[in-house]
Amino acid sequence: MAGERKLVKACVVAIVLAVTPALRAATIWTTGPGDVTFNKPSNSDETDPAFWDKITNSTWITRGNTKGLYNAKTETFFNDVVDPAVSPANTEWAFSGLEGNPTFGYGDGAAQYLGLTFDLWEDSLGGTGSLASNIQTLPGVLHIISDDIYIDIQFSFWQQHPGGGFTYLRAAAPTATPEPGSLAILVLGAGVLGLKGRAGRRR
CA 62 to CA 100: how far, in whole Å? Predict the structure, then answer.
C-alpha cells in the first residue's frame, strides 16, 4: 500500500508539472494550406459582420471607410482621439524590419515572437506617414493580448481613404488536438484509477 501511495503522489506531481507550462505558454498559429484571406471591399458597410474578421471571440478586425483598423468586438471606430491611436483594441503588432525587428518572411515571424518588439498598430508601421507603403510590403505578426495568440499576417491591399478597403492573408486557428499536458493528464489519470481499482479488489 505504501508503494502505491507514493506512486499516486508521483502521478499527481507529474500532472501538475505537465499542466502548468501548457497554461502559461503562448499560442502560435502557424501558416499552412488553411490560411485565411480576409477582404473588406471598398466602401463596404463596416457595421455588417460579413466584413469583420472574427479571429477569436475577443478580436474582430475591420475598418471604416476612412482611417485605420479597429476591433469591432469592443470598438465602433478607429480610436485616434488619443495620441498615439490605440486601435485595434486588444492587439499589438510587429512588422519585419521596423522598430528594430529582424527581417522575416510571412510564416516566419510568429515563431520568433520572443525576439520581436510589439507596438500599437499604427506606430508599429512607422506612423501615418509611412503606414500606407509599409503595410503592403512588410509581413507582420499580430498578437491578440487577452488570448496570448501570435499570428503571422501579410497585407496585400490597403486603400488610401476614402474607401476603406483592405486585404490580408493570415494564419488560421489550429485544428483541435490534445495538448501534451492534456495527454499527460489522461495517461496519468488512467494510471491512478487503475491503482485505486487494484487497491479496492485487495480489500
Answer: 27
Which three cell numbers mark 68?
485605420
Give me the pLDDT at residue 179, please: 52
Q: How far is CA 153 from the centre of its chain?
A: 10
Mean pLDDT within 130-151: 97
Note the pTM of the prediction, 2 decimals. Answer: 0.77
Query: Tens digits of per-residue pLDDT, 95-113?
Result: 999 999 999 999 999 999 9
Question: Above 80 in pLDDT, residue 92?
Answer: yes
Cβ proximity of 78 and 68 under 8 Å: yes
Cis peptide before 139 (omega within 30 of 0): no
Q: What is the DSSP string of the chain?
A: -HHHHHHHHHHHHHHHHHHHHHHH--EEE--STTPEEEEE-TT--TTSGGG-EEEETTEEEEE-SSS-EEETTT-SS---SSSS--PSTTEEEEETTSTTPPP--TTTSGGGGGG---B-HHHHTTSHHHHHHHHTT--EEEEETTTTEEEEEEEEEEPPSSS--EEEEEPPPPPP---HHHHHHHHHHHHHHHHHHHHHHH-
